[in-house]
# Entry
Amino acid sequence: MSKKIEIINGPNLNLLGKREPDIYGKSTLEDINKDLSSYAKKIGLDVSFFQSNIEGEIVNQIQQSEKSDGIIINAAAFTHTSVAILDALKSLSIPKIEVHISNIYKREEFRHKSLISQTVNGVICGFGINSYKLALEGIKNILDGN
Ligand code: DQA
# Structure
């Protein structure tokens, strides 16, 4: 049976496609998720998606992800501020990958600090929307024991 991966996106990522396209590209979140679904299938993973602009809803979703085999999260602006999301991620014993579309280290200084990196298996950032695919590859490798 395919392993289940939960992909969580945080605030303002529902606006992908029209939000600062020079930084985040022209694809919508729907486009990205469609593409990820078929890519996941190809590599033997089963993905589900969640997006919220609300910190508490993201915490609830992370708590419910314990039943999944892995989690990929772009916490967006909450990456830099949320102890609640860090603590929720810490409570999970499944593999976790942090993703960013942009290279946060090439941007404003306040984006250089991620509160959640300390609890994830790996961080992928700066590859545009391909960051999500690379995260799927990464989590697949972890689950396969490579
Ligand atoms: C982001 C980077 C964050 O700094 C920003 O607040 C986002 C998106 C990214 O994917 O590049 O909303 O997580």
